[in-house]
Design a protein that fits this description.
Blueprint lengths: L2 H6 L2 E11 L5 H18 L2 E7 L2 E8 L1 H13 L3 E14 L5 E5 L6 H18 L6 H15 L1
């Protein structure tokens, strides 16, 4: 990327974490939580994707470093999941998502989940073109592929 391109493209940070959902957290409740999070994250300039496979949650966050850390702190304080571990971090990457996406493994059983996952699956082609130089995004895509292969 040329110096001129670097000046016109806002470079941000990205983070990927994995956690285990509380056993009482349903997919429907997770979608409601995500709707509220979308509003808060939009104010903070945070976008990304959340994937769920059973009790396994993988979330990709992208935005300004301070906003990511603030959001991660709130997530770590939540009683809705545990065993949170940051898998990958990157600095100086281009934004990959224009909004929030969510995917569920085995999503055809429920129409609402199918809609959420359908949006995510539709965005995958564009996201795959942006993984170079963004390790958290590359890992997110690889994990989705792993979920779908299982």
């Amino acid at each position: 990327m040329s110096t001129r391109d670097m000046q016109t493209v806002a470079m941000i940070d990205a983070l990927l974490y994995e956690s285990r959902a509380d056993e009482r957290l349903t997919d429907a409740e997770l979608e409601v939580i995500l709707i509220g999070s979308r509003v808060r994250n939009a104010r903070r300039g945070i976008t990304g994707a959340l994937l769920r496979d059973g009790d396994r949650i993988v979330q990709y966050l992208e935005g300004e470093p301070a906003a990511i850390e603030r959001t991660l702190g709130a997530i770590q304080a939540s009683p809705l999941h545990h065993d949170l571990a940051v898998i990958e971090r990157a600095t100086g990457v281009e934004r990959a998502f224009d909004r929030w996406y969510m995917g569920f493994r085995g999503f055809h059983a429920d129409h609402r989940r199918a809609a959420a996952t359908g949006e995510w699956v539709d965005s995958l082609a564009l996201v795959r073109d942006r993984i170079e130089g963004n390790a958290p995004l590359a890992r997110l895509v690889a994990l989705w592929d792993e979920f779908e292969a299982a």
